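Q: What structure does this chain adopt?
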Amino acid sequence: MEERYAKELAIIEKTEIEKETDIIKNIMKTSRELKTANTNFNYAQGDLVDYYVYQIKEKQSKLDYLIKLAKHKGISVDMINKTKYQLIEKNNEAI
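A:
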């Protein structure tokens, strides 16, 4: 009997445009999460204050990293806004 391995899949590399789009999506998502953490912090009481402080620091660090990465790749704010509006339009068409 012959043994075969089912997990012999090729890894598909993303194109540069797909990579840039992923960075932009992550920037937008992290920005929303940071805004939410800040709002929650404003209403937090007791031990939750420390929790939201930690979340704010974590989200801000992640956002700083993503922005630095975007600058390094030459992604501008205009590209981010354009992608943001394209995603909104795409979601509206799906509804």
